[in-house]
Amino acid sequence: MDKNTITGLVLIFVILVTFSYLNKPSESDIDAARRQRDSIVQVETAKAMQAEAEAKAATATLQAKVTTPPTDSAGIAGVENDLKNLYGVFYEAVKGTEKFITLENNLMKVRVSTKGGKIYSVELKGYKRYNGEPLVLFEGDKNRFGLNFFSQNKSIQTDQFFFTPSVSDTILTVSGAAVSKGKEGREKFNEEGKQDSKSLKMLLDAGNGVSVAYVYTLKHNSFMVGFDIQTAGLKKVMGANSDYINFAWAQEMPRQEKVSQFGEDNYATAYFKYFKDDVDKIPTTKSETKALTTKVEWVSFKTLFFSSVLIADKAFMNGQVSTKVRGNTDSTYVSDMTADLTIPLDNSGSESFAARFYFGPNQYNTLKQYNIKLDDELALGWTIIGWVNKWIIIPAFDFLRRYIGNFGVIILLLTIYVKLIIAPFTYKSYISQAKMRLLKPEIEEIQKKFGEDKKMESQQATMALYKKAGVNPMGGCLPMLFQMPILVSMFYFFPISIELRQESFLWAHDLSSYDSILTLPFKIPYYGSHVSLFCLLMTITNILYVKYNNEMSAAGTQQMPGMKTMMYLMPVMFLFIFNSYASGLSLYYFLSLVFTFVQMWIFKRLINEDAIHAQLKAKQKMPVVKSKFTARLEEMAKQRNAPQKKK
To answer: If I label 645, which of 320, 451, 594, 625 is the partner at 20 to 30 A Cα–Cα?
Structure first.
């Protein structure tokens, strides 16, 4: 390639770039085009909504006419004609009798109705409600789902029609090997051997090759229910331009736990995961509707300990979720949750949309095994708090419960385990407090020397003393900072641990809820109308610990007289907060404080404070060794001042 060719190519490139720059649309042109596009979308959306409203109004009118069937032949013929006008090719399926088929494995009973082909109820066999009744996630019309679409300008809702089951049996039982404790619902257990599974197909046949079917599949030892949506010939009755159908799902979430100020109502909400993205939710205790404008992998209706999750093998196109909070005045239901999801259609004629339902406990390892971020539903704490729970607390807790049946003993052993982990930090904190306490007489002398008028000089002299003695005044606080993530992680872990649910210890009947030894005839604001003994024990022990800690620490609190009062107020504040929290959490904090006293007693017996005092005195006599960083700073300062001295 010669010089002229290269020059020509460069010039062509420059001309193209310049032409593109000069002819690019202005900001006003872009805004005008955007407004035009938005207005077109708004018009088309308004037309679609108007057509939908007109179709629903016509449907409602016809439904009112056929509600009371006539007895004469002319009237019957008229009703048949009205049904055709109302439901089109699906009108025959509106006639039928509701029947039920049950899919059952070792973990749950899934009852399916021929009316709408929907899951009518789900009972979890290993759990009970707070009042001892069987734990049913939902039942009857409290769970509604079905496909919604327009056929020949008629609004079709499949939950109105009768489906035909693929089996004549009313119970399909899935058998398998016995499951050991702790492996309930674990998919790896099923992989170890051949496990049974059963399928049920519910068919809505409109004739002429037009049909809708739901295929449910249940395996042994699984909380997952396969849910495949199969359609055939819908394009014939929907129109060639139809490229999606809507799936509507709604549940009224029954109250499974007793009403508590910090209980079930504070955790119930709808979660959803965007396609290849993060998990989001509607804020708890809030009624809200949220539009899902991009692809969605799954939607979950979650309460404190249980979830109903609809999972797409690929993704829903978009959708909308909403929650309506009932409030703790409703003793029957916690909230109402709905989801409207869009399922794509192609032009194949016969299509299948693979999905599955999860009906089960909010147990960390059970949810995590599916690798679709279902475990993000669990409020285990932000960043480092969540990591502590996932990598330290939960593995130890699961290990202990495999071999020990008493959860009070498990909490005791878990407390010892945690105290051993943080023992080095506690030891360093104690050593630092001992050094500060030994320097207390010298600090008091400095304060007397300078008096109240020279606080700045007093602080400088005190810091110089610390430096000479080699004592870090923050040495007692820094180790505590390393302990805080574990202490806070427990605050998140215990209230949501389903393993503690309905497990008793001593006077506590349910370690996942508050314990009550006395019911008051009145309600104390922010405290409640019951008395939690574990919370009282924790508070008393905490006050004793504060008193002991003040006696062991140096006299620095004399400079901040309000600090001691604040330290005593904190346990009282915790009394109000923890009275309605999980009793397992109060038990843990109580045991943790008791073991802290034990650790302090052991440290006091093992540590020779006279030897430490002698070391401090020896260090004060030694010249202060400057760190390399400090020496470097001083050398740089000398070099900067050297030219000025020469001048």
So the answer is: 625
46 residue type, one letter: A
Q: Please tell me what DSSP assigns to residue 623.
A: P
Question: Which distant-in-sequence residues (6+ apart) come within 8 Å of 373 by Cβ?
Answer: 273, 278, 279
Extended beta strands in 48-194, E state = 100-104, 108-113, 119-128, 134-139, 143-151, 154-157, 164-165, 171-173
Is 220 exposed, middle or buried, given 0-12, 13-18 or 19+ CB atoms closer than 10 A?
buried
Contact (Cβ atoms closer than 8 angstroms) between residue 419 and residue 396: no
Please say whether the beta carbons of 486 and 424 come within 8 A. no
Q: Which two tokens stand for residue 459?
A: 């602080």
Nearest 10 degrees: CA dihedral of 633, 635, 640, 645? 140
Q: Please tell me the pTM assigned to this model.
A: 0.77
CB atoms within 10 A of CB 405: 9
- The Cα 137–Cα 119 span in angstroms is 11
Asked if 619 and 528 touch (Cβ cutoff 8 Å), the reply is no
pLDDT band at 12 (very low <50, low <70, confident <90, very high): low
Amino acid sitting at position 340: D
Residues sharing a CB contact under 8 Å with residue 295, sequence separation 6 or more, in sequence order: 274, 275, 315, 316, 317, 318
The three-state (H, E, C) secondary structure of 162-225, written as one string? ECEECCCCCEEECCCCCCCCCCCCCHHHHHCCCCCEEEEEEEEEEECCEEEEEEEEEECCCCEE
d(CA 587, CA 414) in angstroms, rounded, equals 11
In the chain, ranges of CATH 2.70.98.90 domains? 90-175+195-378
- 3-class DSSP state for residue 352? strand
C-alpha dist (Å) from residue 248 to 86, 118, 342, 595? 20, 12, 9, 54
Q: Which of 306, 296, 302, 282 is nearest to 355 (CA)?
A: 296
301 forms beta bridges with 270, 308
- Per-residue pLDDT at 558: 47
Q: What is the tally of helices (H) and strands (E) in the chain?
A: 18, 22
Architecture of domain 90-175+195-378: Distorted Sandwich (2.70)
